[in-house]
Amino acid sequence: MNHKNDGQIRNYSRVLDQKYGAPGTPERAQFEAEAEAFYSGQMIREVRKEAGMTQMELAKEIGVNKSYISRIENGQIVPSVASFFRMISAMGMQVQIVKG
């Protein structure tokens, strides 16, 4: 759905409903999964760059190939929890789980 910037305020929940179906539909679930994969990949890329590492360096550090890191950063795949923790640790970060 292409909207020109006409200055109109849009209800993006309605836009998503129209384009991908209502929440809970298979189409909407697919869109949300792809969006989450893209977003998490972008976060990993940002942290990796802040750590001053190349994809190759990160891959070598956690024992995978560079294309695996690339696919994660491009939102094509979501890493396993174990791989995520290894990447975070290799980039000098830590994950802290706290009760909300």
Short description:
The chain has 100 residues and is mainly α. It has 5 helices and no strands.
Give an account of the 3D structure.
This protein is mostly helical and 100 residues long. It has one domain (12-90): 434 Repressor (Amino-terminal Domain), CATH 1.10.260.40. It contains five helices and no strands. The chain has helices at residues 12-20, 26-50, 55-62, 66-73, 81-90. Helix 3 (55-62) crosses helix 4 and helix 3 crosses helix 5. The longest helix is centred in the middle third of the chain and has 25 residues, at 26-50. The radius of gyration is 17 Å and the shape is elongated. The relative contact order is 0.11. The mean pLDDT is 91.
Number of helices: 5
Number of domains: 1
Radius of gyration from CA coordinates:
17 Å
Q: Give the CATH topology.
A: 434 Repressor (Amino-terminal Domain)
- Ranges where pLDDT stays below 50 over 5 or more residues in a row are none
Helix coverage percent: 55-70%
Mean pLDDT: 91
CATH architecture: Orthogonal Bundle
Q: What are the secondary-structure elements, in order, as H or E?
A: HHHHH
Span of the ends, CA to CA: 37 Å
- Given helix and strand content, the structural type is mainly alpha
Number of strands: 0
Q: Class in CATH?
A: Mainly Alpha
